[in-house]
Design a protein that fits this description.
- With 454 residues, the chain is of the alpha/beta class.
- It folds into two domains: 250 residues, 3-Layer(aba) Sandwich (Aldehyde Dehydrogenase, Chain A, domain 1), CATH 3.40.605; 188 residues, Aldehyde Dehydrogenase, Chain A, domain 2 (3-Layer(aba) Sandwich), CATH 3.40.309.
- It has 15 helices and 20 strands.
- The strands form five sheets. It has a seven-stranded mixed beta sheet with strand order 12-13-14-11-10-16-17, with helices on both faces. A six-stranded mixed beta sheet has the order 7-6-5-8-9-19, with helices on both faces.
- Helix 4 runs parallel beside helix 5.
- The longest helix is centred in the N-terminal third of the chain and has 25 residues.
- The N and C termini lie far apart (60 Å).
Length: 454
């Protein structure tokens, strides 16, 4: 059965694709296995030259692939173009640093020489989401290929044009056939691919249930995995903060990518001493955001990517209000066609409300007043998730306490949570395990071989 990409702003079909057959998938896995045997023997210098070319290809397509990304999943054009440029950055980062990250590690023992050598392990399957359709893939692909592995991509079915464009990046850059391949398959076929003997590992960015499924299957096959799952990131504001800057950061952190980001700030805990000031400015800023065509200049919020995401968010908001959360302003009039949801702030949602404990994938913020940093951290940690966290303060003791006590894979001080090729990225608790990016990312799928020479 064919699969269509639908423009979430108009509900019109953009393009239709034919999924790969079982024969196609088997051929792709054989190509990956065969290519790996050659690719693993190439030098870092050779891989780096090709990875730099991949960055060039990405930069050359910003003006055409940016709009197609916005049409396929709805993010504002400037953000789509920025995403492509960021992908070029991660390619260049690993081209320049892979050999250093994976150099031999000498260890003094009773042997005449002992060291750890970092070797690739083979084809790695990446199961990737639609919300950052290029970045999520390249932050896996760049380190994996530079380490000497080869990549297989199972992308979300609503962004298959992006998926095929990514495969084309590596083709245009001169990577040999089989180094990186896109599998146009549904989620129901992932288990078979993970279990295939030719696939040596898997990485997934997505929902908790999807991550649990892939981890369970891979665990049954004794294959390593990295999972980056959901989040309900806390954003804490203390009295010493620059409130104007904190509000600006808070709005950006909540509404990036139309609010559809695992690392978006979602739960805002503001100290009582500055609560009223922050609340007033936060409401003004969120109300002022422009909702509209993602291809138009000045658009802050485009449509949500799929109808079920919009409907789920609307249901969460409705249930939260019924439970006692207070909406702080009226929704804007939105088009009847398309999957739109305007910005909103829900105040003092009770513990049983979805806004207090569920991930809300859209431009809806949850706001609470707290009495102290200890109170804020306690409430922030009262969540099954632990991806990112932010605190706005100028007090060193408060920074140290937040860094020590917040149960999250990262804490950003006076800024929003963001992924950076130079920094390891990942979460704790049900937000996943393992790390992407930086040295951790390239070591996620390698064999740390111990060598001892008598």
């Amino acid at each position: 059965m064919s699969v269509s990409s639908i423009n979430p702003a108009t509900e019109e079909t953009i393009e239709t694709f034919e999924p790969h057959s079982p024969v196609d998938v088997d051929a792709a896995l054989s190509r990956a296995e065969g290519r790996y045997e050659d690719w693993r023997l190439t030098s870092f210098e050779h891989r780096a030259r090709l990875m730099q070319k991949a960055a060039d290809v990405l930069e050359s397509h910003v003006d055409d692939w940016g709009p197609s990304m916005s049409l396929e999943m709805g993010k504002p054009l400037s953000q789509a173009q920025g995403e492509l440029k960021k992908c070029a950055w991660v390619c260049r980062h690993y081209a320049e640093n892979a050999s250093k990250y994976l150099e031999d590690q000498t260890i003094k023992t009773d042997a005449s020489k002992a060291f750890v050598r970092h070797l690739p392990i083979g084809p790695v399957l990446a199961v990737m989401p639609w919300n950052f359709p290029y970045w999520q893939v390249f932050r896996f692909a760049a380190p994996a290929l530079m380490a000497g592995n080869v990549g297989l991509l199972k992308h979300a079915s609503n962004v298959w044009r992006c998926a095929l464009n990514i495969e084309d990046v590596f083709r245009q850059a001169g990577f040999p056939e089989g180094c990186f391949q896109t599998l146009l398959i549904g989620s129901d076929q992932v288990e078979k691919v993970v279990r295939d003997r030719r696939v040596r590992a898997a990485t997934l960015t997505g929902s908790g249930p999807a991550g649990a499924s892939v981890a369970s299957i891979a665990g049954d096959e004794i294959k390593p995995t990295v999972l980056e799952l959901g989040g309900t990131d806390a954003f804490i504001v203390m009295p010493s903060a620059d409130i104007e800057a904190a509000v600006e950061t808070a709005i950006d952190a909540r509404t990036q990518n139309n609010g559809q980001s695992c690392i978006a700030a979602k739960r805002f805990f503001v100290h009582a001493d500055v609560y009223d000031d922050f609340r007033e400015k936060f409401v003004e800023g969120m109300k002022a955001l422009k909702v509209g065509d993602p291809l138009e200049d000045g658009t802050n919020i485009g449509p949500l990517a799929m109808k079920d995401i919009r409907d789920d968010l609307a249901s969460q908001v409705e249930k939260s209000i019924k439970a006692g959360a207070r909406p702080l302003f009226e929704q804007k009039d939105l088009p009847d066609t398309g999957w739109w949801y305007g910005p909103q702030i829900l105040e003092e949602a009770p513990d049983n409300a979805p806004a207090a404990h569920e991930e809300m994938f859209g431009p809806v913020a949850s706001l609470w007043k707290v009495s102290s940093l200890t109170d804020a951290i306690r409430r922030a940690n009262d969540s099954p998730f632990g991806l990112g966290s932010s605190i706005c303060t100028t007090e060193r003791a408060e920074m140290d306490q937040a860094i020590r006590d917040l149960e999250a894979g990262s804490t950003f001080v006076n800024s929003k949570v963001a992924s950076d090729p130079r920094l390891p990225f990942g979460g704790v608790k049900t937000s996943g395990y393992g790390r992407e990016l930086a040295e951790d990312g390239i070591r996620a799928f390698i064999n740390r071989k111990t060598v001892s020479i008598a």
